[in-house]
Design brief:
three-stranded mixed sheet, 3 domains, 17% strand, alpha+beta, 9 helices, 289 residues, 47% helix, Chitinase A, domain 3
Length: 289
């Protein structure tokens, strides 16, 4: 895909022009537009064009991006020469630069020293000590769900199997599901939010299902085409202690943040002590005595 752009200087509003013949190190990039001493490169423009778009759309996106870039440079140049307190702007820029450099350095050091891996044992220990903090914001269940067409055979057997958590019944309904079910999910071994399971049922039966979960272990509803079966083996109500598998991510973030704070605090203390020892810090007495 090719674009034709004017590669020489755009001279507007008295900007300092740089001749097309002047040698400029573009560091391997291909210049497209120049405004004063500012260059926009082909690689920068191409990076904002989404893949798999038409040639016309690509050209339109490129044109808009280039025009916006030119407008921004012209406006910045105009503003730079006409602001009343340029010194204050420089102070703010320098302050932000210090913050940005410090933040980048800290993130780099922390990622090296602290890392991102938290052992499962550490997460489990934190969970055991702080279970009461992690409470479910919605109900959770363990069990089995199956959706079967009304035209399928053996519905009466499904009604018996899905209610029973015995190995035999689960095996039979699993094999039946492979042949006949439109949707089948076994989750005896993990907690699932009720709202996720609730979405599997037809909307018109939603209230019935929602009101039944937590009260009935076995729920069956039907619409014009399907039978929906849900067996609730275990129920965890809203406000009860959240299972570790759901609290784990939050715990990982908490532990990581604690480690970060501890490391940064220690690093600051060490830097301060080293500076004191080398007399790099001097406190001046501000009294008039």
């Amino acid at each position: 895909m090719y674009y034709k752009y004017l590669f020489c200087v755009i001279t507007v509003l008295g900007l300092l022009t740089v001749g097309c013949t002047e040698t400029v190190d573009h560091r391997g990039k291909t210049p497209l537009v120049q405004v004063g001493k500012n260059f926009l490169y082909k690689e920068d423009v191409m990076s904002v064009i989404p893949p798999n778009v038409s040639e016309k759309d690509s050209a339109d996106i490129a044109d808009r991006y280039i025009r916006n870039w030119v407008d921004d440079i012209l406006l910045y140049t105009k503003a730079e020469g006409n602001i009343p307190d340029n010194e204050r702007i420089n102070e703010l820029v320098n302050s932000y630069r210090k913050v940005l450099i410090t933040h980048t350095y800290i993130e780099h050091i922390v990622s090296q020293e602290v890392g991102n891996a938290i052992p499962d044992r550490e997460i489990e220990e934190y969970y055991d000590k702080n279970k009461e903090v992690f409470l479910a914001s919605e109900p959770y269940i363990k069990g089995l769900y199956i959706k079967v067409p009304k035209t399928a055979s053996g519905i009466s057997q499904v009604r018996q199997w899905y209610k029973n958590s015995s190995e035999y019944s689960v095996d039979r309904i699993e094999k039946y599901g492979l042949r006949n079910a439109v949707d089948y999910e076994y989750f005896y071994d993990k907690w699932r939010p009720v709202n996720e399971i609730f979405l599997k049922f037809p909307l018109k039966e939603g209230d019935k299902v929602k009101n039944s979960i937590g009260k009935n272990k076995n729920i069956e509803v039907s619409d014009s085409a399907f039978h929906y079966f849900l067996h609730v083996e275990d129920y965890l109500g809203k406000g009860e202690i959240l299972p570790l598998e759901y609290a784990g991510n939050d715990i990982r973030e908490i532990i990581m943040n604690n480690k970060r704070v501890e490391f940064i605090t220690k690093m600051k203390e060490d830097l301060y002590d080293e500076a004191l020892e080398s007399n790099d810090i001097k406190y001046f007495n501000s009294s008039n005595e």
